[in-house]
Amino acid sequence: MPVIVFATSKGGAGKSTSAVLLAEQLAERGASAILIDGDPNKPVTKWAKLPGKPATLTVISDISEETIIETIEGAAAKAAFVIVDLEGAASRMIPYAISRADLVIIPTQGSQLDAAESAKVLTVVRMEERHLRITIPAVILFTRTSQTIRPKDLGAIMDQFIKAGVPIMHTEIHERQAYKSIFSYGQTLGGLDPTHRGLAAAKANARAFMNEVVGLLQNQPAQEAAEVA
User: Which of 77, 108, 148, 151 is 20 to 30 A removed from 69 (C-alpha atoms)?
Assistant: First the structure.
């Protein structure tokens, strides 16, 4: 079953939020999913201990550099989707997980610092491709963006990825209070109070993200940055 790895060498890029959104969207639609929490701060594990986690979603948190490959392979034999949330720091766990990925998603905010860290992860992906003599699809996911405001820095960073030929996801993960709420109180987006501010937009955003990821796994080409701009 497909393995989706969320990887960045920088903390605070929206990695865990994106991984949980994908997992809960898949699980809410009845798909079995295993979410592997490789972040030392265990944000996914803490969320899973709160009320409202879907029954079809399993979270695994007891992993290390020594066990990450075995854990991923075991999970892939059991669930329709395996989602790996890696730690936001440079470690051997990142290339090990990437070596088993069907898709690597690299979350980044619209800053030059984040873009530089994303480039480091892309380098790791390319090194694993050469080492294993396989192709590992990798895409950039912009996170914590505004649906209405497009900062100049974000446009400049997109241009950099265009010139480098790096695929960028058409869907961005917008800054939404509902995403923060599920980490604070538990639940999925579908389990939040229907009167929650901006919930409908958050659900639409998360659903679009899930649909694009599934499309990428089905070998539908990612939207190029030129289409996003």
Answer: 108
